[in-house]
């Protein structure tokens, strides 16, 4: 087993975050309380977990070293005391891994169920998905590893174990927890206040509900915002969504405590460029198309497309088909259509309309979060997006587009610079060499949550213990027990339980957004002064 540290350690997490590693859950929660009270400049968000606090910061406001020094001055106390309400969750114990987990623990399934129901759990922290709570304090025997390879789909209501934690999946999502049962309780509902069934500090008891009377698990009734209206003076209708069409802006900030990730456009430079071409603010919501698509204008609109777009074709009301130049504003009359032909290299492009789309904000953003289901649902043929009305102003000047790394995407092998850490010390020296020398193929099991990669040689770990769940960021290269890494993108879970060997640079994320299945990547070491720091610990943190 890895040794618990008596002093915290600070580790780099890419270029805009750091990880504070503490001794145990009580110290971690106390540190998080002190961090919130300190209100330090430059901190964007903090995500507590089992034994760490992920701190995201603005590099233009504070540096990695400066922030580490400030964190060293924080005083903490035990943060686990709570008198939260008791929540009982009925469970049908028929999970896919129930028998396997019982065998692993050397007990019967009946004994496993009894121990799970007699445990007094407490909500320690949220993460992974909206409404997902990490429940601590269960029977010490119920300590099981995550699955070697995560499942791509776990149904809503699934009850699982991972390490010493228990939890309930609030909606269908990927995951690597061992599934022992399922519940009909809806864990997340935006129509409720608060939307999550379990709140930090709540006490939780599981109750054996016996065999289920119906097959399957009910889908969460969480509210979604419908895009279709057709009542506005101007609108954009999606005729063909391509492989995927979703509405994206710069994403959500400060919602990790709800288990909600930031989401937002995968290729931020392309989003900014498309908006700049029509006179919008850079972060205005745009349609993110994957592998092309087609729209029709209802009313006169001005739009622009940026990213990995191929040819743009305009079908006029007369029936004439014109080709449009990329990276320039395009005027469409009512009933005219624009088709985006899939690019030879690259995957995603962004269609912005002058004035922006008139879609309600959800938790501060119009972004579609495909993992949590928050925001406008993915767009389909017939989806209608209203366009906000703007005053009579001159046609906006064309702003210079942000550089887009098309030359990298068109290359035979795409190079992605990374910053090692925070958990590179969990891997052998040979694995670190393999990370940089071996080509990694992007598999078809890839989406906005992340890219699943495959290499001939898996990455071997030197530490095989279970890693307590900790916060992750876009660009994190997480390595499950199979040794085949997953590169997290914008819709990644808030926390993860597999070690992150490295994190892409901010600029490399735009390149990763455009990678298509079958392409090969090579990781390179980014120029970085970020190194793990041993931080001086106040006396109150010096544990035995």
Major sheet description: 7 strands, mixed, barrel
Low-confidence stretches: 1-6, 214-230, 532-544
The helix fraction, in percent, is 10-25%
Q: Tally the helices: what do you get? A: 8
Which secondary-structure class do the elements indicate? alpha+beta
Q: Approximately what portion of the residues adopt beta-strand conformation? A: 25-35%
Strand order across the largest sheet: 25-32-29-30-27-26-33
Shape: globular
List how many beta strands DSSP finds: 34
Protein name: 5-oxoprolinase/urea amidolyase family protein
GO molecular function: ATP binding; hydrolase activity
Organism: Brooklawnia propionicigenes
InterPro entries: CT_A_B (IPR003778), CT_C_D (IPR003833), Cyclophilin-like_dom_sf (IPR029000), PxpC (IPR052708)
Question: Can you lay out the helices and strands and say which pair or pack?
Answer:
Blueprint: E1 9-12, E2 17-21, H1 25-38, E3 43-48, E4 52-57, H2 64-71, E5 86-91, H3 98-105, H4 109-117, E6 121-127, E7 129-136, E8 151-154, E9 158-162, E10 165-168, E11 173-175, E12 178-182, E13 203-208, E14 235-240, E15 244-248, H5 268-277, E16 286-290, E17 293-298, E18 301-307, E19 309-315, E20 321-324, E21 330-332, E22 337-342, E23 348-353, E24 384-386, H6 406-409, E25 413-420, H7 429-437, E26 440-442, E27 450-454, E28 470-471, E29 476-478, E30 486-488, E31 495-496, E32 500-504, H8 506-512, E33 520-525, E34 533-534
Parallel strand pairs: 5-13, 25-33
Antiparallel strand pairs: 1-2, 1-34, 2-4, 3-4, 6-7, 6-13, 8-11, 9-10, 9-12, 14-17, 14-24, 15-16, 16-23, 17-22, 18-21, 18-23, 19-20, 19-22, 25-32, 26-27, 26-33, 27-30, 28-31, 29-30, 29-32
């Amino acid at each position: 087993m890895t040794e618990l540290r008596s002093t915290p350690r600070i580790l780099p997490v890419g270029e805009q975050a750091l990880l504070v590693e503490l001794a145990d859950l009580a110290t971690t929660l106390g540190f998080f309380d002190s961090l919130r009270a300190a209100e330090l400049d430059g901190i964007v968000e903090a995500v507590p977990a089992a034994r760490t606090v992920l701190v995201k910061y603005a590099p233009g406001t504070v540096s990695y070293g400066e922030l580490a020094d400030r964190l060293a001055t924080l005083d903490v106390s035990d943060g686990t005391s709570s008198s939260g309400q008791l929540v009982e969750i009925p469970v049908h114990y028929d999970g896919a891994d129930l028998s396997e987990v019982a065998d692993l623990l050397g007990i019967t399934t009946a004994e496993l169920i009894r121990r799970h129901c007699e445990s007094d759990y407490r909500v320690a922290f949220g993460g992974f998905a909206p409404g997902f709570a990490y429940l601590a304090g269960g029977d010490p025997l119920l300590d099981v590893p995550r699955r070697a390879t995560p499942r791509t789909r776990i149904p809503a209501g699934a009850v699982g174990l991972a390490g010493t934690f228990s939890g309930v999946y609030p909606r269908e999502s990927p995951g690597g927890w061992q599934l022992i049962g399922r519940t009909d309780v809806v864990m997340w509902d935006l129509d409720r206040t608060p939307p999550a069934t379990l709140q930090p500090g709540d006490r939780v008891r599981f109750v054996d509900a016996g065999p289920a009377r119906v097959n399957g698990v009910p889908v969460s009734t969480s509210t979604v915002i419908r895009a279709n209206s057709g009542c506005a003076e101007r609108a954009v209708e999606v005729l063909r969504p391509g492989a995927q069409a979703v509405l994206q802006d710069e994403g959500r900030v400060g919602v990790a405590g709800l288990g909600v990730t930031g989401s937002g456009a995968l290729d931020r430079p392309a989003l900014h460029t498309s908006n700049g071409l029509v006179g919008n603010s850079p972060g205005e919501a745009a349609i993110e198309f994957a592998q092309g698509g087609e729209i029709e204008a209802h009313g006169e609109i001005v739009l622009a497309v940026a990213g990995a777009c191929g040819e743009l074709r305009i079908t006029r009301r007369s029936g004439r088909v014109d080709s449009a130049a990329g990276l320039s504003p395009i005027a469409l009359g009512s009933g005219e259509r624009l088709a985006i032909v899939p690019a030879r290299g690259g995957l995603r492009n962004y269609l912005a309309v002058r004035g922006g789309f008139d879609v309600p904000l959800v938790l501060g953003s119009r972004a579609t979060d495909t993992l949590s289901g928050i925001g406008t649902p993915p767009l389909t043929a017939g989806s209608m997006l209203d366009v906000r009305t703007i005053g009579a102003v001159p046609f906006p000047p064309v702003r210079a587009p942000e550089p887009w790394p098309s030359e990298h995407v068109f290359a035979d092998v795409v190079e992605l610079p990374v910053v090692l850490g925070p958990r590179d010390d969990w891997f052998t020296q040979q694995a670190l060499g393999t990370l940089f020398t071996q080509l990694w193929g992007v598999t078809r099991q890839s989406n906005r949550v992340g890219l699943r990669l495959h290499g001939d040689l898996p990455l071997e770990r030197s530490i095989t213990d279970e890693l307590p769940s900790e916060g992750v960021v876009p660009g994190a290269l997480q390595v499950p027990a199979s040794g085949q890494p997953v590169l997290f993108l914008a819709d990644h879970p808030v926390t993860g339980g597999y070690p992150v060997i490295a994190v892409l640079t901010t600029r490399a994320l735009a390149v990763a957004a455009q990678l298509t299945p079958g392409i090969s990547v090579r990781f390179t070491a980014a120029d970085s002064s970020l190194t793990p720091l041993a931080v001086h610990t106040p006396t109150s943190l010096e544990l035995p």
